[in-house]
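Q: Structure for this?
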Amino acid sequence: MVCFLSSDPVTRAYEVDLVRELNRKKLGVRKVIVGPDVPADIVTAEDVVIDSPGLASVADDGRRRPRRARGPARSRSSGACTSGCAPMHLPTTE
Amino acid sequence: MATVVLDERTNDRSLVMTSSFTNMVLAGRLLAVSRDARDYRARVSTLARLAADLLLDHANSLGAIARSDYRTAVYLGSGNRYGGAREAALKMLEMTGGPGQDVPGDLLWGCATVPCARSTRRRSWSASCPAIR
């Protein structure tokens, strides 16, 4: 399982929570986790972390675009995202 | 109006056309996001250095994972990393000849799953992978 973690803090919180759930349910044999500042608690002994120091300075371009993930969602704890964590321009077709 | 001219070398002759994809992404970033050529060059230089470091630092550990015994690979990414996740899944599909499956759309974390048909690795590409013809 290859997890590309977002540099956007709101999206990142959701993704990290999802990885914790994958670990809890023992889904996926091994993970490659890509992104800066990967929380240690989501990394198991078999996993590889590609943290690429400096990647955060490049950031996701998507965060420059208008999006709805602002406001009350920021104050939530991780994992509680519903409408607050709107996806950023996901393609809807092939 | 901006014009981007890709070097002829980006017309990659390899099977999976990784440098072609990479250069199109970089050109897309310039057209879609960057208004400042100097800022863009700095970002690209940073990304190129990170990619080189990745190969130096992680080639062995990633190689060990690639050689381990698995039948399915899943790639997760959201936002513009969703496109990267899909492309990574396509690379796996192309290199293994496995039947790919994409779960696109409204997921917060887009998912591209590739059942890796490792036993068919040596089959003819034209027969096993119509997507790359």
